[in-house]
Amino acid sequence: FLLKQFSRISELITEGDLKCLIDNLDEKANEIEKWENVTEKSKGLLSYKAKCCKPKDGPFKYLSVTVFGNCSPELLRDFYMDCEYRKQWDRTVVEHEQLQIDERTGIEIGRTIKKFPLLTHREYVLAWKVWEGSNKTHYCFT
């Protein structure tokens, strides 16, 4: 059972998901699905852009891109992916626990409870994986 469970975890996020993510980031190649701008903000060396897409045959998609100036990709990756430290700086995180890690593939599974203004707390069970591109670009698929 345990071996079967690990093989299923390794299939949660694939190289095909990375290709799809990169295609979605390339706006010119993304004419099949209609993406709507949600927000776009910029201040100094920091910019943030969020988009959403509601495909006919699948779940809602959300894409966010944050660009930080004067920060190494490795430092930023470590900052965002440190779930224990996130509880200290992210005021929306009420609770987080890591459920499982597949050391071979780098896929992690975690449970997070978040609070939002005027809403009840929401619980998420998510799987994620981070890839590093050849130009030190990092991609995170959740």
UniProtKB/TrEMBL annotation:
GO terms for cellular component: cytoplasm
Superkingdom in the source lineage: Eukaryota
Organism of this sequence: Opuntia streptacantha
Residue stretches making up the START domain: 35-142
Protein name per the record: START domain-containing protein
GO MF term list: lipid binding
